[in-house]
């Protein structure tokens, strides 16, 4: 595993990374029971893990609240204390998990000195996280469509957050709209990730890094320059240097 994208205990795990019935999160009854807030938070985490694994295995439409509760080791009354229903729980798991992914991508992006390397490292962080938690990848990327309009809105919001990584791309020649190009690139990345997961090759997602990196950079730099930047990470290049908002008055 690349040490640049650690999965150590001090990092927040994606929903589905643990079983809902993980013994380490068992709730002890009796007078030494944990505070109510801690108990509720633990039950919520277990339900999100149970939901992700159940939806990945059975599909959103076939998964029931009873299935989710059974996978989490949590009762139905407790489920309905925390969520209004299956859709509410699904969206909570999706928001939490994609928030983890975006934050890890942002950290990898910020660690680089130019946007070319930053985009590549952000992609690498995303691919490794999804490859390492296949149940979440299936739930979040494949099953989100089955949720209906609310799921599609969540996906659109996620793609909007992904577009932020392209805020520093150079202008395109010939009057080609940058935002339209970014939309096309972001949609293409999502489609490639979707196809890999849908075909049962989630564990091979990291193999997409070279092609997705080229796909993200080539429209803005040209294929030859993108290849040069991806092949050599040393030195600075004006076409890829970060823009400091403090120097532009933004």
UniProtKB/TrEMBL annotation:
DNA-binding region: 64-83
InterPro entries (alphabetical): Homeodomain-like_sf, HTH-type_TetR-like_transc_reg, HTH_TetR
Keyword terms: DNA-binding
Residue ranges annotated for the HTH tetR-type domain, each copy included: 41-101
Biased composition (Basic and acidic residues): 227-236
Region (Disordered): 17-36, 227-250
PANTHER family the UniProt entry points to: HTH-TYPE TRANSCRIPTIONAL REGULATOR RUTR, TRANSCRIPTIONAL REGULATORY PROTEIN
Name of this chain's protein: Helix-turn-helix domain containing protein
Organism: Kitasatospora cathayae
